[in-house]
Amino acid sequence: MHLGLCICAACPHYVLSTRLVLVMHHREYTKTTGTGALALLALPNSELRLHGVEDQALDLSDLDDPERRLLLLFPGGDARLLDRGWLAQDSRPVTLVVPDGSWRQAAKMGRRLNGLDRAERVVLPAGPPTQWGLRREPRAQGFSTLEAIARALGILESEEAQAGMEALFALVVQRTLQSRGKRGQSTPIDI
To answer: Which residues contact 126 (CB under 8 A, 6 or more apart)?
Structure first.
């Protein structure tokens, strides 16, 4: 993104009990429409794990900690609906693993990556349609990674965290479109 459109200074910072682990294929890391890495800037209690690097098998078994509840945001039919009532049944803090990729890529990651066999698979509840618009979403329930993380944090943490992350997401969309010459002057977005 052009230096004048950089959003780094507008990035909120949330210290949360939820630990985010973003799993991304190494080829996706440099794509300009990838939004998951922005969540890492906003959430100091987060980390990126790359998979698909030759001769470096990714093993996530270290995430299986009895002191924490391991959840995998998973776009599959066997995933449980993420909601506060269900979360209240287990008071441990959450480690949320979020595959960063298309619907198909995310489903493959959840089945193929070592160490996720004990993770509880969760899916986001229905909500407003995506505001992404930079990539085509083939599924109505598809979201950008940052948008999905924001919605998950709204359930896991607070409406404030969700609103702040969604404002960051809106700014990303606005500035990306502006950098492509598809919008005029940017209007300030409160974060």
So the answer is: 141
Is residue 190 in a domain?
no
**C-alpha dihedral (40, 42, 44, 47), degrees to nearest 10:** -10
* Nearest alpha carbon to residue 94 among 13, 20, 44: 20
2 part of a folded domain = no
Q: Considering its fold, how many domains does the chain have in total? A: 1
Question: SS3 for 72?
Answer: strand
Spell out the alpha helix ranges (H) of the chain.
36-42, 84-87, 103-112, 145-156, 159-179
**pLDDT band with cut points at 50, 70 and 90 for residue 76:** confident
Interaxial angle between packed helices 145-156 and 159-179, expressed in degrees from 0 to 180 and rounded to the nearest 10:
170
Residue-range definition of the domain harbouring residue 77: 10-179
Interval 83-132: pLDDT, tens = 999 999 999 999 999 998 776 777 777 778 888 888 999 999 987 766 66
Whole-model pTM: value is 0.83
